[in-house]
Predict the structure of Methylthioribose-1-phosphate isomerase.
Amino acid sequence: MKINGTPYRSVWIDEKDGWSVHIFDQTRLPFALDVLTLVTADEVAHAIKTMQVRGAPLIGAVAAYGLALALRVNADDATLEDAAAMLAATRPTAINLRWAIERMLNHLRPLPPAARAQAAYAQAAAICDEDVAQNEAIGRHGLELLRALAAKHGPQKRINILTHCNAGWIATVDWGTALAPIYMAHDEGLNVHVWVDETRPRNQGAALTAWELGSHGVAHTVIADNAGGHLMQHGEVDIVIVGTDRVTRTGDVANKIGTYLKALAARDNAVPFWVALPSTTIDWTVADGITEIPIEERAAAEITHVAGRDDAGQIARVQVTPDGSTAANPAFDVTPARLVTGLITEKGCCPATQAGLLCLFPEKGG
């Protein structure tokens, strides 16, 4: 995707030294476009923990490069295993992180130490390229849903899409998951408009999704998290498309906290609720998302404080709760498969069921 006319991916290797890793500091968006240079595995782990880099597919790709950085210094077995364990522990809910680390380990363990660093960089680059291809395919399949809505409503009526959190290109290596069909629809000339949930407590929708869509010229409106149901009741939402951090083999969906409530409102108002994901987000070992998917509990300060730009143009952090009030901050919730209209993957769309997923991925039937 492009920023001010210049194409970017969300992670890249420095062309000059050929090994340091660059990412955008997402905690600084939308007010500053800062690029971080990561040179150690510890720095990668810190960036993931603090959400300077976030988004399930992207943290998997960046963690893969983190392993490569560790092996540049020491490529023995102990370093490989320790670095992998450290990186895998940074975020518990997103399955892509564990998937990427396991793929790297399976590729690197059989190699002699002298060959590991170069192989790690090559494998991390392959993960990135595959993510881009998968997300582009997700976009093409999701575009068909939006084309169908356009054909149903006619070219004059805008298609209103509601999304929650950020599942755009800044959350992946490129294109995004939930936003990829929207970008393609916009580029094709469809009359699309996006309702962007602010997505408290970290405001990834208001800060990141709105910034992405605005940079690409997509019409959008930021709304309070609790406004989606009201808009659905009044016929102002044609379709909901969200991303996900983990999907069970039975179609349960773990996504940013608040997604479940959107799915309930969508079901009550007969609004299609679609989830876009690469196959790397499917956890084939889990059947019951509510009881089996670990839900990350983040710092209470994300609830009690909020950051933004003040009238003087300075970034400020202010407290919004009374002194002494405690806060709980579960970062994700699980939407049961029964509330999901369908899943959009790189292989096509399917019902949110085990049978539906196996139709697209029959090799997982064993």
The mean pLDDT is 96. The chain has two domains: 2-130, 140-365. Residues 140-365 form a domain with the Rossmann fold fold (CATH 3.40.50.10470).
